[in-house]
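Q: Give me the 3D complex with fe (ii) ion.
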Amino acid sequence: MKFSELIAPVKMPEFKKKILAGETFVIKGKKKKFSHLISLAEIEAVLNNGCNTNLPVEMIVKGGRGTVADTNILWAPVSLRKKEILQLINEKNSMLMRNMSQITPRVAAMIDEIETVFEGAHADVHLYMSLKKSSSGYNAHRDRPQHKLYLQVIGSTMWKVFSHSNDLDDEIVSVKEEDEWRYLKQEKEFTLEAGDMLYMPPATFHKVRNEDGPRISLSIPFYVPEKPYNRMDRTYIPFKKIFESRS
Ligand SMILES: [Fe+2]
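A: Here is the predicted complex, encoded as structure tokens.
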């Protein structure tokens, strides 16, 4: 997906101007705008492939995230405790898979494009999944140093964006619900529907929930790191085509 299509109908100069202004903004889109990027079947296949879990799926429980993994398995350094994960899903906990920038060839191409448009930036994909209505979410928090693009692929999410009081220690990144009145002031409240895209500047306090039903969201953090890193090689290997060419 070309970046220009991603942000349409907004044009690049306007988009960059908004980013430089440091504002959180939403680009409304048609319901199926992002549905070609990933399907439920593709997510299910990756979730159940326990063989390449260098960063295992995480569950969002009690406002924070954690892995449900076993590191005492003979043939694998990390293996998912899937029965527990299934139970947590049924108890309305959301889940997250990071390091998903190559989950499908279409997503990989899109992330390559983002890294090209924002020269020197490195991007990842955090895939957020809530399988039940009103599943868990993080406490209000701020992510640094990354900028965020957030694509609502299926379903909807309710967002609250806050400013914070000067009393809040710079090291604090997350605020519990009972302390929100003390440190945070709600600035915006909106719903992202399928096809909508959000841009959020680094260090913005926010809280996200899914009250209307199941949802799939692609969160894309990106920033230019201080020390140089190699760009991830997301080349697609056409295994089947090569195999079947019989040459
Ligand atoms: Fe976040």
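A quick observation: The domain at 3-69+78-223 is CATH 2.60.120.650 (Jelly Rolls).
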